[in-house]
Amino acid sequence: ETGVTQSPTHLIKTRGQQVTLRCSSQSGHNTVSWYQQALGQGPQFIFQYYREEENGRGNFPPRFSGLQFPNYSSELNVNALELDDSALYLCASSLGADRDHGYTFGSGTRLTVV
Amino acid sequence: GEDVEQSLFLSVREGDSSVINCTYTDSSSTYLYWYKQEPGAGLQLLTYIFSNMDMKQDQRLTVLLNKKDKHLSLRIADTQTGDSAIYFCAENFDYKLSFGAGTTVTVRA
């Protein structure tokens, strides 16, 4: 059983640029959530995808968008990058509403905006 | 609402027990989780408790839930150097997780 894999592991972008982060969910999981973890803080929910549809969204502006593909992998896109977007971006997968096993997290993508 | 609070730091001697405390605000949360994060890594699920339970034990880990006071704690017995990490309490609210800021646990010899 493979876990959640994210790519790239590290990324440096310039303010104003766009970035795409990728996530492959754990085998058998059909739900993907994205979280932003700023330095010294807990993860903050960005949005969740279930069966290729956005299933819920946190308090993030529209320049944060996502996709889920038929194989349940996912992308997080951020447009017009700002310095405050520098953070660890975590992807988590789950099997629908199976909260008994929580959410399996990837190791994250460390994004630095300069 | 979703507002999870934790103490920020805990220092414990190797072999002693660690107790990490957390308070949450949403009484409708059905699951509460403890995650561990080591430097440079993602989050590892340690354990969880369903809201109709008061206690759950899993090897060295004991979770206590006081639903009336919305207080959750994690006790780690016989704390080892490998337990040094950041521990996050999280409540499940509307299919998303709301996390505390994390408690940094340092184990000293």
**What is the mean predicted local confidence, pLDDT of chain A?**
92
Order of helix and strand elements from N to C terminus of chain B: EEEEEEEEEEE
Poorly predicted tracts of residues of chain B:
none
Class by SSE composition of chain A: mainly beta
Using only C-alpha atoms, the radius of gyration of chain B works out to: 13 Å
What is the overall shape of chain A?
A: globular
Through-space gap between termini of chain B: 40 Å
By oligomeric state, this entry counts as: heterodimer
Order of helices and strands of chain A: EEEEEEEEEEE
Largest interface, by Cβ-Cβ below 8 angstroms: which chains and how many residues each?
A-B, 26 and 24 residues
Helix percent of chain B reads under 10%
Please specify the SSE layout and strand pairing.
The complex is a heterodimer of chains A (114) and B (109).
Chain A: E1 5-7, E2 10-13, E3 19-24, E4 31-37, E5 44-50, E6 53-57, E7 64-68, E8 74-78, E9 87-94, E10 104-105, E11 109-113
Chain B: E1 5-6, E2 9-13, E3 18-23, E4 31-37, E5 43-50, E6 55-58, E7 61-66, E8 71-76, E9 85-93, E10 96-99, E11 103-108
Parallel strand pairs in B: 2-11
Antiparallel strand pairs in B: 1-3, 3-8, 4-5, 4-9, 6-7, 7-8, 9-10, 9-11
What can you tell me about this protein's structure?
The complex is a heterodimer of chains A (114) and B (109). Chain A is an all-beta fold and 114 residues long. Chain A has strands at residues 5-7, 10-13, 19-24, 31-37, 44-50, 53-57, 64-68, 74-78, 87-94, 104-105, 109-113. In chain A, the strands form two sheets. In chain A, strands 2, 4, 5, 6, 9, 10 and 11 form a seven-stranded mixed sheet that branches. In chain A, a hairpin with a 6-residue loop joins strand 4 and strand 5 (44-50). Chain B is mainly β. Helices cover 0% and strands 58% of the residues of chain B. Chain B contains no helices and eleven strands. In chain B, the strands form two sheets. In chain B, strands 2, 4, 5, 9, 10 and 11 form a six-stranded mixed sheet that branches. Chain B has a five-stranded antiparallel sheet with strand order 1-3-8-7-6, with no helix packed on it. The N and C termini of chain B lie far apart (40 Å). The interface between A and B is medium-sized, with 26 and 24 residues.
